[in-house]
Design brief:
Elements: H1 2-29, E1 43-46, H2 47-52, H3 57-67, E2 70-74, E3 79-83, H4 86-95, E4 100-101, H5 103-114, H6 123-138, H7 140-167, E5 171-172, H8 173-190, H9 202-220, H10 227-233, H11 236-262, H12 271-279, H13 288-319, H14 321-335, H15 344-350, H16 353-358, H17 360-372, E6 379-383, E7 387-388, E8 394-395, E9 400-403, H18 405-408, H19 412-415, H20 440-457, E10 458-462, E11 471-472, E12 478-479, E13 484-489
Parallel strand pairs: 1-2, 3-9
Antiparallel strand pairs: 2-3, 4-6, 5-13, 6-9, 7-8, 10-13, 11-12
Helix pairs in contact: 5-9, 7-8, 7-15, 7-20, 8-13, 9-11, 10-11, 11-13, 13-17, 13-20
Length: 493
Amino acid sequence: MEILTSMAIIVVTTIFILLSFALYLTIRIFTGKSRNDKRYTPVHATIFDLFFHSHKLYDYETEIARTKPTFRFLSPGQSEIFTADPRNVEHILKTRFHNYSKGPVGTVNLADLLGHGIFAVDGEKWKQQRKLVSFEFSTRVLRNFSYSVFRTSASKLVGFIAEFALSGKSFDFQDMLMKCTLDSIFKVGFGVELGCLDGFSKEGEEFMKAFDEGNGATSSRVTDPFWKLKCFLNIGSESRLKKSIAIIDKFVYSLITTKRKELSKEQNTDILSKFLLESEKDPENMNDKYLRDIILNVMVAGKDTTAASLSWFLYMLCKNPLVQEKIVQEIRDVTSSHEKTTDVNGFIESVTEEALAQMQYLHAALSETMRLYPPVPEHMRCAENDDVLPDGHRVSKGDNIYYISYAMGRMTYIWGQDAEEFKPERWLKDGAGPRICIGKDFAYRQMKIVSMALLHFFRFKMADENSKVSYKKMLTLHVDGGLHLCAIPRTST
C-alpha cells in the first residue's frame, strides 16, 4: 500500500509540475509582445502551434507564407518572426548584417552538438574560424587534394552501385551517399581514411548514426518548448541527444589525439592539421574542446549538405527522366565519351576541372534541386537592436527571425506561377552577404563529379514509383526513411 501511495504521489506531483510549467509558459507567451500593434508582423499563433506541426514544419510554414510572407509566433521570451520575403532576407544577411546574430536562443540550442563552431557562434570566434577555413578552401593544394579524393570516391561509388544494378536489387542511395561523403570529408578535412562506405569502420558508422541522431534531436529544440525540462529530466529526445554526444565525443577526441601525434611526422594538407598548428599559438583558447567543435561543424558542411542535396537531386531526376537524359547527353558531349564506355577509371580521368566548368545544365539542375530542397531549410538570426524590415514591419531587440529557404523556393511571388515545377533553366544562389557559404565551390565540385560518374554508367528510377517521399526534420534536409532506388546499367560495367 505504501508503494502505491508513493507512486500516486509521484504521478500527481509530475502532472502538477507539467501543468504549472505549461501555465507559466502560456502567461509568458502572452505578455508584452505588441500583439495588436499593426507596425509589427501579424501574429499567426504561439510556439505550441509549431510544436504540433513539427513533423511537417516546413510545409506548414510554406502554406502560411503564401498569404503572409512575414508572420509571427509568440513564445515565452520573445517573438519568433518568420519571413519568405527576399527583401527582408537581403536586409538580414547583407544590409544590416551586424544587427543580426545567432543570439542566445540559437547559441544555446546548438551548443551541446556544435559547441563553438562556425555555425553556432558570432563575433571574433566566427571571424577567426571563417578566416582560417576560407583561406584553406582557397588554396591550390586543398583544391587539388579534394579533387583527387572526390574522383576516387565517385569511382568507388560506381563500383558499389554496379553490384546492385547487376543483381536488380534496390538500395538506399541516401545511406550510401552519407557514408561516401563522410569518408570524403574525413580524408579532405582531417586526413583520415575512414572506410565507412567499404564497411571497414564500425566506429565510423556508429559515429555517423550518433551524429544524425544528435542532428535530429538538436533540430527539435527549435519547436519544442519543453526541451529544457526534458534535458533536466533526461528523457525523450534530450536523452537520445546526450547518448549521441557521448559517442560523438569519444570518437572525435580520439581523432584529435591521433592527429596531434602525427602532426610532426608528415606533411599535412588537411584542414584539421592547420587548426592544430594554429592551436599551438593559443593553446588556452584553442583547446581540444574547441577543435572538437570545429570538426563537427566542418562535418555538417562536408557530409550532410552534400549527401542530402545529391539525394534530392537523384529523386528529382527519377521524377523527371527527360532532365536525367539531358544531363547524360551533356556529360557525353563534354567528356567526349559515349554510352559504350565501360572503363570507370578512364571515364573518371576525363572528368577534369575544365569538364566540370562546362557542365552548365548539370549545375543548373543541382541548383534547381536546392531551390526546392535546400540543404538547410531555414536559418535563424536574433535582432541585436530594434529595427524595421524592408516590408515595413518592426522587429524588437531580442526577437528571433527565421528566413525560410524551403518556403522561398516555392513562392509564386518570387518564382512565378510555375514555382513548384522542376526547371533547371533557373537556379537559386546559395547564401548572400558576409555569411555566404565559403564551401560553395567545394560542394558543387563534389556533387558534379559524383553525378557525372553515376549518370554516365546508370539510369536511375524509384524502387517503388508509388512511394511518397518526404523530409525528416533535422538541421539539414534529409530524406525521411532513406531514398530507395534501382539502377539500370547504361553500359556493361
